Amino acid sequence: MFGNELLNARQIAKKLEISNTYFFKLTKLGMPFHRITPGGRKFYNYDEVVNWIRKR
Fold first, then answer.
1. Based on the structure, what is the number of domains in the chain?
2. What are the residues whose beta carbons fall under 8 Å from the beta carbon of 43, sequence distance 6 or more?
3. Host domain of residue 17
4. What is the C-alpha to C-alpha distance for residues 9 and 49, in angstroms, rounded to an integer?
5. What is the pLDDT of residues 9-39, one digit of tens each?
6. Torsion of CA 2, 37, 29, 47, to 10 degrees
7. Which InterPro entries is this protein grouped with (predicted)?
């Protein structure tokens, strides 16, 4: 369903080699995320995020 792994905000920012500030700017622009439970923490799939960035 989600691919191989889900990463939290800190992990995905580190893997993308971007600052936390820039990461949160991307989230405001609509970066895709998943939630395990309704209203729970956001998790990010690396491949989905990279594809989303490339399309922008």
1. 1
2. 2, 6, 7, 8, 33, 34, 35, 36
3. 4-53
4. 12
5. 999 999 999 999 999 999 999 999 999 999 9
6. -10
7. DNA-bd_dom_put_sf (IPR009061), WH-like_DNA-bd_sf (IPR036388)
pLDDT at residue 4 is higher than 80: no
CATH of the domain at 28: 1.10.1660.10
The two structure tokens encoding residue 38: 């309704």
Cβ contact 6:47 at 8 Å:
no
35, 44 contact by CB (below 8 A): no
For residue 48, which of 33, 35, 37 has the smallest C-alpha distance? 33
Phi-psi region of 22 (alpha: psi -120 to 50; beta: other; left: phi over 0): alpha
pTM: 0.84
